[in-house]
Amino acid sequence: MTSMPVPERLGAYLKRAEQALNATKNSVLKPAGLTVPQYAALLSLSENPGISAAGLARLCAVTPPTMNTVLKNLQERGLVERTPHEWHRNVLETRLTAKGEKTLADADARAVKVERGLSAEFTEAERETLIALLGRCVDFLESARHPDQE
Fold first, then answer.
1. Fewest Cβ atoms closer than 10 Å to its Cβ: which of 9, 69, 129, 145?
2. Do 75 and 81 contact (CB within 8 A), yes or no?
């Protein structure tokens, strides 16, 4: 077995950055009464009204059962409404309620402060480079996950 020193493992740095971002967003979203997954669902719903739970799960990168739990909690709080699709009665369309829109506006203002603060840590050129480098990470990792599909 070939060993690789921990400081050379990029995955550890990616994981720490993701954990720090999620912890910070959870902290700033708490006063708005939302978790990061709930916020992500509301934000995606605002851009895709009427989307199905399965479609929303794909957008938010969670499993359909996880999204169903998130939506159930949001619906119980009156932040979303789910109604049968006009043609596909077994598909529920999900939309924000007025209360959901207000909650999202509050939460998004909080999340945007974090994003702007993070962005301000880098020059424009550094941000562009970071985005490109992270994109390369994703491309490699996705290809490594499905090596037979190339």
1. 145
2. yes
Whole-prediction pTM value? 0.84
More confident residue, 98 or 91: 98
The answer to whether the beta carbons of residues 87 and 130 sit under 8 Å apart is: no
Token look-up 């699709």 returns 85
Q: Are 104 and 46 in contact (CB under 8 A)?
A: yes
Pick from 77, 65, 129, 130: nearest CA to 102: 77
Residue corresponding to tokens 């999620």: 22
In contact, 62 and 70? CB cutoff 8 Å: yes
- Among 34, 40, 45, smallest CA distance to 92 is for 45
Pairing outcome for strands 92-96 and 80-84? antiparallel
Token digits for 120?
A: 């301000």
pLDDT given for residue 146 in this prediction:
77
Cβ atoms 28, 107 nearer than 8 A: no
Alpha-carbon distance of 79 to 102, in angstroms, equals 9
